[in-house]
Specification:
Elements: H1 5-17, H2 19-26, H3 46-50, E1 79-97, H4 104-110, E2 147-167, E3 170-183, E4 186-195, E5 215-242, E6 245-273, E7 282-286, E8 290-312, E9 316-323, E10 326-340, E11 354-368, E12 371-378, E13 384-392, E14 399-402, E15 417-425, E16 431-441, E17 457-469, E18 472-488, E19 492-510
Antiparallel strand pairs: 1-2, 1-19, 2-3, 3-5, 4-5, 5-6, 6-7, 6-8, 8-9, 8-10, 9-12, 10-11, 11-14, 12-13, 13-15, 15-16, 16-17, 17-18, 18-19
């Protein structure tokens, strides 16, 4: 096989620089960092989070301002409430490669089963020169296929005050507060990313080899990470319409910032021969020395409105909230730094590395569709409260437009409703015990999903307790969130897991 060396080098560098475009089409899992994390809404109330995140009809304190402001009507006195959250997250990816019948060495190389310290030799045991196609192919680095990572953080969650008033014989409760609206933390890593991914199954299958000329693929490690939050400043009120029926409304001024990081390390340039004078279905690995890092920040701004109704009776309550469509603007800046030694012969001296850097910036608008929640609580006795929520957000209808995009897109897939369940038991007037569960349906679909566009699904289990000591209220909530899914290809399966532990502490004083 012959190939112009300059053309090959340019192709590698261009592919690495424009990895966002190629990866998004060829391998969704290793796509660029853009809207990840912006689907992760936070519930500011410790009591609601302990009861599975139920907020439609379950609010009974000042934190109802952030979920269903109509429930502020349940306050009987001025309340000041503050809350914080400590969380730890562990993530893991395990890859299992399937030996390919014609190229068993290919999967062995991806799974790092070959000795990485042995560089392929150009001669056989008798000293006869070998072509690249016939030499044993091994990785040129010590990157392993599997990885795991843990992180932790402490974050302020909410600060809110609310007070009941009488205005022209109308019962009104006014509130103002600040809370975390979106938790943007996100991390993904793939040590065996390919572009194009020749083992892709869906939506457009790509066989590993075909009866054509040489197939080329970039082999690289890809990491993306985002940390940060979107907070909101929210004024709102509730007003009694008729006996047992209240109306509420709030406006949230959104603002936030995140640290964004993408890193790509080229591991090699693969050539898969199917019909070019080499042994059919053979392959060759060329060394490539290229790295690229994109490090920057994103700023977020927008305004979100919430209107709600609460119908309350002795043994049950029904709540409805509606969030009209709104737009969140993301403005980003980043420095792109590349390290290129592709033109140098192996081994490469450290002082011969070539660094290049440039600045990028842009703006994107995320148009969220209207969302609504229907909540129901049942209080059969003074000691028991059972809660249920049905929430519809239609994330697949979110429209992304921006200065760096050639056309608008719908990057998310989740069009399902989410259900939440919770229960509270009060053994005494001073102690409340709570538990709950809710679905955690993701906005992305795993690669190779049996149903195209089917989102990954997880679950969040919660428990908590509340203590009332005179005018002081203390809330303690624990959440355990688990998400597991598989990216499936013809050549391998990537088993991904994420486990998150959250501990929330909230304190309030009622005057």
């Amino acid at each position: 096989m012959t190939m112009n060396l300059a053309t090959k080098i340019i192709g590698v560098i261009v592919a690495a620089t424009l990895c966002c475009a190629s990866a998004m089409v060829a391998q969704i899992a290793a796509g660029p960092l853009d809207v990840q994390g912006l689907d992760q809404l936070s519930v500011a109330s410790g009591r609601s989070r302990a009861m599975g995140g139920t907020v439609g009809a379950n609010g009974n304190d000042a934190s109802a301002l952030f979920s269903n402001p109509a429930a502020l009507s349940r306050l009987g006195s001025f309340e000041l409430r503050v809350g914080g959250l400590f969380g730890s997250t562990s993530r893991q990816q395990t890859q299992e490669w399937v030996p390919y019948m014609s190229d068993p060495g290919l999967s062995a190389m991806f799974e790092s089963l070959a000795d990485p310290s042995h560089i392929p030799t150009p001669k056989d045991s008798l000293g006869v020169p070998l072509t690249g196609w016939k030499a044993v192919q091994r990785q040129y680095d010590n990157i392993q296929p599997n990885w795991d990572r843990s992180s932790s953080s402490a974050q302020p969650l909410s600060l809110v005050a609310a007070m009941p008033l009488k205005v022209a014989d109308i019962s009104i409760t006014a509130g103002i507060g600040a809370s975390q609206v979106m938790n943007l933390d996100h991390y993904y890593q793939n040590n065996n990313a390919l572009s194009p991914y020749l083992g892709q199954l869906r939506p457009d299958p790509k066989t590993i080899t075909k009866p054509i000329d040489t197939v080329n693929a970039q082999w690289y490690q890809y990491i993306r990470e985002r940390t940060g939050s979107v907070y909101g400043i929210t004024p709102g009120f509730s007003a009694a319409l008729v006996q047992g029926l209240t109306f509420g409304a709030s406006a949230t001024l959104l603002t936030g910032k995140s640290d964004d990081n993408e890193h790509r390390v080229e591991r090699g340039h693969l050539y898969l021969a199917t019909n070019n004078k080499a042994t059919a279905n053979d392959f060759m690995l060329d060394t490539v020395y290229y790295q690229q890092a994109k490090v920057g920040t994103s700023s977020y701004s927008g305004t979100m409105f919430t209107v709600g109704l609460l119908f309350q009776q002795n043994f049950f309550s029904l709540g409805v909230t509606v969030k009209p469509a709104y737009t969140l603007t993301r403005t980003w800046d980043r420095e792109v730094t590349s390290l290129d030694t592709t033109k140098k012969r192996f081994p490469v001296r450290i002082d011969s590395l070539v660094n290049r850097s440039y600045h990028e910036s842009g703006k994107e608008d995320l148009a969220f569709p209207m969302a609504y929640t229907i909540g129901f609580i049942l209080t059969p006795t003074e000691k028991w409260t059972l809660a249920f929520d049905y929430e519809v957000r239609s994330l697949s209808s979110m429209l992304l437009t921006g200065s760096t995009l050639t056309a608008s897109s719908n990057p998310w897939v989740n069009n399902y409703a989410t259900m939440r369940f919770g229960a509270e038991f009060r053994p005494s007037t001073t102690v409340a015990l709570r538990t709950g569960y809710h679905e955690d349906i993701q906005a992305f679909s795993p690669d190779g999903s049996a149903i195209i566009g089917e989102p990954a699904r997880g679950g969040i289990y919660s428990a908590g307790a509340g203590i009332t000591l005179g005018n002081v209220l203390l809330e303690l909530t624990y959440e355990y969130a688990v998400l597991t899914y598989q990216d499936i290809y013809q050549s391998n399966g990537n088993y991904n897991s994420q486990k998150r532990h959250n501990l929330m502490i909230e304190a309030a004083y009622r005057f």
